[in-house]
Automatic annotation (TrEMBL):
The keyword Membrane applies. Pfam families: ERAP1_C, Peptidase_M1. Signal peptide: none annotated. This is AMPQ Aminopeptidase. It comes from Toxostoma redivivum. Its cofactor is Zn(2+). It is a single-pass type II membrane protein. GO terms for cellular component: cytoplasm; extracellular space; membrane. The active site is at E91.
């Protein structure tokens, strides 16, 4: 029996119907795939208005934050349902192992039925549950693309993080019993790296053998404890009992190289000799770690040549020759590693292959699978950030973008080229007009495709998950680049709303439309948003959008007035003041206005927010620091307001920001020089 509990009005209005309907489906899916029955006679899902986590997988009584389970019956959009499905699936997965709804479901097997022996193997609960949450979510929402969503939401973000974190997936028991903070283990390394390693493991074993081993493991250790070696043993037993899949080493040796050492590898490929070399991928500003594995992994390499998939091969030492990977002189002879992102690593191609891949993208982008186009470009930008390749190499791979129709790829490119935190800085740099001309030329096809839906039939996008998640960034960038049609569209939709406050701006782009409706308008548009903020019973998400929109005004006096309003207890709740300041300070005309406001009103602000607000504002101000004189200007203020130890910390922050800004200016000059040569191509 499955019951769901929530506030009476939420149940009455049907807000929990979707979560209740998919729970049984996910249970059945997990029971069928794992061939292990859920042993309890009932499951209750409880939605609490206030709960510290997204969900918690108590056996038979899963608790969720209300917002994690609720879906308005009128909301047909896949993104909301997908989020609910992921959380439910995770927690159900725990009913076998043990922590959110999709996520909650997984833990019933991984965490509850079989629990890790000690916290050092927490990833056995959370990593496996996180892996199955995506399988479960795509089972109940088959319109979701498993490989795209898994790479965009799980693998890519944790690759960015893992290169900065000095800890392995599985620690020694002694380390956890000693100085290690237990709560710090509940991080993206445990959840997302654990899921990514599981994805890779399932890939080279084949899903059939992987599930067979998991079933054996779950049955053996039901109602007891296990460690990762127990899982490796059961996988080895399955491997030994068949002859289809041959591994280069025992399962424990392969998998310990991924779970017991920090970070992950980057493979460097020389196509002239067919040599593949591995090393730990690390930030140029950090030091290499030393551990018992000597930074060597046993790496499964899935690859293709000229569009044809090749047999899986392995790199089990620091460097190895693969004669089959030598290419001819033909420009149409190319190699692609890590096909369908089956491995947890980055790839650094030699110049010859990158040129051929760039040409291929321009002539026939679909010859490379979408997830590999994503990986190829993301890898090269990451390699640029960490000093492996010059920025020009990454930019060469963006020339083809006029033919790119995948929003999740566009989103990754835009986050690399125009990080939200740098929009106001870039707007005042000589690179902006060049970037505008270069990007708009490539952005127009996909922009017009989606703008057509927004104008004529936005409901047609209800099953387009990536449109719901990423269209906002595309539209915001088009408007930021000054595309007139984007500004006109924002004005049109804003005017509709202003004429009829009952009209709903499409949620996919509501933040952008409200912002640019105010930006291209006058005080009348600003005043309307202010009125809607004060007279609406809108949900918290809408209130955040309105607070943000009012910071988009292009007239200084409106921003001054907005900040002054923020001081009034009668106009805003106290927690809104810092939000208003943080929105205004990030705008290209707002950072000086916000800084002057903070310094002039510091005695009043410090009572309500203390030094935390000042730290946040100074971090943003740091983006504009170029000289020692500017640092001294900021120092004059905070020397009078902060204690000595805090002053030292802020000085270091600003000095660091100055160095970063110096490096960024050098980088932007390189980008500008490249754009000047390629802007008309």
């Amino acid at each position: 029996q499955i019951h769901i509990w929530a506030r009476k009005e939420a149940i009455k209005n049907g807000y929990l119907d979707y979560a209740l309907n998919i729970t049984g489906q996910i249970f059945s899916f997990l029971e069928d795939i794992l061939n292990v029955s859920y042993p309890l006679p009932k499951t209750d899902l409880v939605a609490l208005p206030d709960f510290g986590a997204g969900g918690m997988e108590n056996w038979g009584l899963m608790i969720f934050q209300e917002a994690s389970l609720m879906n308005l019956p009128s909301n047909e959009f896949t993104s909301r349902k997908a989020m609910i499905a992921l959380i439910v699936s995770h927690e159900l997965g725990h009913q076998a192992c043990d922590f959110e709804i999709f996520l909650f479901f997984q833990f019933k097997w991984f965490g509850n039925l079989v629990t890790m022996n000690w916290w050092n193997d927490l990833w056995l609960n959370e990593g496996l549950a996180s892996y199955f949450e995506y399988l479960g979510a795509t089972f109940v929402e088959p319109k979701l693309s498993l490989d795209k969503i898994f790479y965009a939401h799980v693998v890519q973000p944790v690759l960015r993080e893992d290169s900065e974190i000095a800890r392995s997936l599985s620690e020694s028991e002694d380390k956890i019993k000693g100085s290690f903070s237990l709560m710090s283990l509940f991080d993206n390394i445990t959840y997302s790296k654990g899921a990514s390693i599981t994805w890779m493991l399932s890939g080279f074993l084949t899903e059939k053998l992987f599930i067979r081993a998991l079933t054996s493991y779950l049955k053996e250790f039901s109602f007891s404890n296990a460690n990762q070696d127990d899982l490796w043993t059961h996988i080895q037993m399955v491997i030994d009992a068949q002859d289809e899949v041959q591994l280069p080493a025992p399962v424990k040796h392969i998998m310990d190289s991924w779970t017991c050492q920090n970070g992950f590898p980057v493979l460097t490929l020389n196509l002239t000799t067919g040599t593949v070399r591995q090393e730990q991928f690390f930030n140029k500003n950090s030091r290499k770690s030393t551990d018992s594995y000597n930074n060597t992994w046993i790496i499964p390499i899935s690859w293709m040549r000229n569009g044809s998939s090749q047999p899986l091969t392995w790199l089990d030492k620091s460097s190895k020759m693969f004669p089959e990977m030598e290419v001819s002189e033909s420009e149409y002879d190319w190699i692609l590693l890590n096909v369908n992102l089956s491995g947890y690593y980055r790839v650094n191609y030699d110049e010859l292959n990158l040129k051929r891949l760039a040409r291929l993208l321009e002539n026939d982008p679909k010859a490379i699978p979408a997830v590999n186009r994503f990986q190829l470009i993301d890898d090269v930008f990451a390699l640029t950030d960490f000093g492996y390749v010059p920025i020009e190499t990454a930019l060469e791979l963006t020339k083809y973008l006029a033919r790119e129709d995948e929003l999740f790829i566009w989103n990754m490119v835009l986050l690399n080229l125009i990080p939200e935190s740098l929009e106001s800085t870039l707007k005042n740099h000589e690179v902006y007009p060049l970037l505008k001309k270069y990007l708009l030329k490539r952005l127009l096809p996909i922009y017009h495709y989606y703008a057509g839906f927004i104008r004529q039939n936005v409901d047609a996008l209800e099953d387009d998950y990536f449109a719901q998640v990423y269209l906002e960034k595309l539209m915001a960038t088009a408007c930021w680049l000054g595309l007139q049609d984007c500004l006109d569209l924002s004005s049109e939709l804003f005017a509709k709303w202003r004429d009829n406050p009952e009209y709903k701006i499409p949620f996919l782009i509501r933040r952008t439309v409200c912002c640019y409706g105010v930006a291209v308008g006058s005080d009348k548009e600003w005043n309307f948003v202010w009125e809607m903020y004060n007279h609406t019973n809108s949900v918290e998400e809408d209130e955040d959008i309105l607070l943000y929109a009012m910071s988009c005004a292009k007239e200084s006096w409106l921003l001054h007035r907005y900040l002054q309003y923020g001081l009034s207890d009668s106009l805003f709740s106290s927690n809104c003041t810092s939000v208003i300041i943080s929105h205004v300070v990030t705008k290209d005309i707002g950072h000086r206005i916000a800084w002057e406001f903070v310094t002039e009103n510091w005695p009043l602000l410090s009572q309500g927010y203390g030094h935390e607000l000042l730290h946040d504002v100074l971090k943003v101000m740091g983006r504009f620091v170029k000289t020692d004189v500017q640092i001294q200007e900021l120092q004059v203020f905070y020397n009078a307001t902060l204690e000595e130890d805090e002053r030292e910390a802020i000085t270091m922050l600003l000095e660091s920001a100055k160095l970063e800004n110096t490096e960024r200016r050098k980088l932007l000059i390189k980008i500008a020089n490249w754009l000047e040569k390629n802007v008309d191509n």
